[in-house]
Amino acid sequence: MATVNPWTKFIGLLPGGIRSVGEVISISTATGTSIIELRNGIQIAARGTGVAVGLKAFIIDGQITGQAPSLPQYDVEV
Any idea where the domains of the chain sit in the sequence? Predict the structure, then answer.
């Protein structure tokens, strides 16, 4: 049944999944994975080898989707 609630329709347009950005630390072409260091210092293994070591990558649901721009990061406490 279709809904007429505008908020529910809006939420349905948003993409799902876990998204993050991190720096590629190493690449394993044998397994097709890369080790990514996230902004908080945690290292994860992600599927994909399309981004070179030392560059930033977009990760969606554990898969590298492309290269991210290398922009400065600022931490602000309020």
Answer: 24-70
